[in-house]
Amino acid sequence: MAVVEARQGPNIKIPKCQSVMSNEYFAKKEEKEKEARVQLTKKRAGKFLKWLAVIVIVVGGGFWLLRGLNKPVEAPGEFFEAQSREHIPPGASHPEYNSNPPTGGWHYDQPAQTGIYDKELPDEQLIHNLEHSHIWISYRPDNLAPDQIEQLVAIAKSYGSRFIMTPRVKNDSPIVGAAWQRLLKLDSVDEKRIRTFADSYRNIAGPERNIPDSGFKDFRSGR
Q1: Do residues 186 and 173 lie in contact, with contact meaning Cβ atoms separated by under 8 Å?
Q2: Domain extent at residue 165
Q3: 176 beta partners
Q4: What is the pLDDT of residues 174-193, one digit of tens each?
Q5: Which strands sit side by side in the sheet containing 78-79, from one edge to the other?
Q6: Are residues 67 and 84 located together in one domain of the fold?
Q7: How many other C-beta atoms lie within 10 A of the C-beta of residue 178?
Q8: What is the pTM of this model?
Q9: Roughly what angle, to the nearest 10 degrees, separates helices 146-159 and 191-201?
């Protein structure tokens, strides 16, 4: 039997310098991939932190907004509890009122017609107006300039019904807004505060609200 000798191919040797270059290539490639992964992680972390900040701002802002909405709104004016709702005859005596001007208590059977007056009306009559949820603006004629009085007139006319304006020398402030059990004292015309007061109590505060008045008029002499 013939014997076939296996022939081996020649041994191929890789040059040392080529092996080193190959290792350096893969090392740099791995380093670049690692750096890319680090940058991607930082980018994702940055986006996450930005969204987290947005969420915190939105949630925090919503919390403070709701807190502000749920905060009780302070009613304008000082509160004075009505001492009575008793009707008394004109000129009859009664205990002293607990505020100046009064915001409730003993009063006449007939309220005043709403409008603008240049003469005083009895407190006892005007208290009945307050009981009907009217707003009464009184002023010290000796302590308020004519232009300020005209500003009050303009405010009164803008409301019309359920609004009455009179001079009152007994006031301890130049201007006083009165509603049932509420009093607002001012040193000068503050239209915003007057309107806030009127809007808060007109046809709201008095126990006999929704009763139609007899018509608003300017009762000043020569008008």
Answers
A1: yes
A2: 78-90+99-218
A3: 138, 185
A4: 999 999 999 999 999 999 99
A5: 78-79, 182-186, 175-179, 135-139, 163-167, 115-116, 217-218
A6: no
A7: 32
A8: 0.69
A9: 30
